[in-house]
Design goal:
Helices cover 40% and strands 26% of the residues. The chain contains 10 helices and 15 strands.
């Protein structure tokens, strides 16, 4: 029987090494992603031998990710199915990649039904493309950045936990900017935006303990945009949060490019996560011309 538990900061010490063994590029295999959204998706984790098992639930299903670490798939699936039965819920896999799907079909032939979940597809970009924005397809982004650079008294700063005092001051500024952004975007009247706001507050609060990296754009002394990310796998960097005031033209592409140039030089790819089915966000993410999308599947026993 598996003992699933709530995700705590202290779990980072044993979870990250197991995630690193699998070296997956998906958002779900980043400890920060699991931690920041855990209360919203009722995410729980468990250690089984040298695997980390990850579960979320709703009223009907217990959803499990493909295991990470030194994987014994038959053993993990047997115990996850037992766990779902003990909860009185239907068993399902969630966010399976194409390679996960192939391995499950190989191990359990004809036993699962797979459905693609487009809203969960991760957007993966060539780091060099986001850093240089070269070529005709990025001309609109370069134009916005050029217009932004004409604005007076702007500056970019790194957020690094190596200078604790400065970092804490910057995080307080980001927190104030985030609260203002939420008021401007009526987050309190939109369930998904309100959930996101809660997750962002959690990341800002625990930024140092999570060893995250960030960048901010300022206009004078006011933060007008910020972003937060970290290394995800051996070749991929993940951006968890990117906020800017939409009324300041060029702020979004400027913080995007500035942070990529500042923090991601040793990586080949940037994961900018999914669009959650939001049409505006989907359009924005496609406008940056992803190298590919990580396709993901929902799966239930036949």
């Amino acid at each position: 029987m598996i003992q699933f538990k709530e995700i705590e900061l202290a779990d980072r010490e044993w979870v990250k090494p197991l995630l690193a063994i699998s070296d997956f590029r998906g958002t779900e295999y980043c400890f920060t992603s699991l931690y920041m959204w855990s209360s919203i998706y009722h995410t729980r984790i468990a250690k089984l031998d040298e695997m980390v098992l990850i579960r979320s639930t709703d009223e009907q299903y217990a959803y499990y990710l493909y295991p990470a670490g030194k994987i014994d798939l038959p053993k993990a699936v047997e115990l996850m199915m037992e766990d779902a039965r003990n909860l009185g819920k239907k068993f399902a896999f969630n966010s399976l990649t194409e390679s996960n799907k192939e391995e499950i079909e190989k191990t359990f032939p004809q036993q699962f039904e797979f459905t693609p979940t487009r809203n969960n597809f991760d957007y993966i970009y060539h780091r060099e493309a986001l850093a240089t924005l070269s070529g005709k397809k990025y001309q609109p982004k370069r134009n916005f950045i050029s217009r932004f650079k004409e604005l007076p008294n702007w500056s970019y700063e790194s957020i690094s936990h190596t200078d604790i005092e400065k970092c804490q001051k910057q995080l307080e500024e980001c927190y104030r900017m985030n609260e203002k952004w939420c008021r401007m975007n009526a987050c309190s009247h939109n369930a998904s935006k309100n959930q996101e706001c809660c997750a962002v507050r959690k990341v800002l609060r625990d930024f140092i303990a999570l060893e995250l990296e960030g960048g901010i754009l300022k206009m004078g002394e006011e933060v007008i945009a910020y972003t937060i990310g970290e290394p995800l796998s051996s070749d991929t960097y993940i951006v968890h949060i990117e906020k800017a005031f939409a009324n300041i033209k060029g702020a979004y592409p400027m913080i995007n490019q500035s942070f990529v140039l500042d923090r991601t030089e040793q990586f080949s790819y940037i994961n900018r996560e999914d669009d959650a089915g939001d049409e505006g966000l989907r359009k924005a993410k496609l406008s940056y011309n992803p190298a590919f999308l990580i396709e993901k599947y929902f799966a239930i026993p036949k």
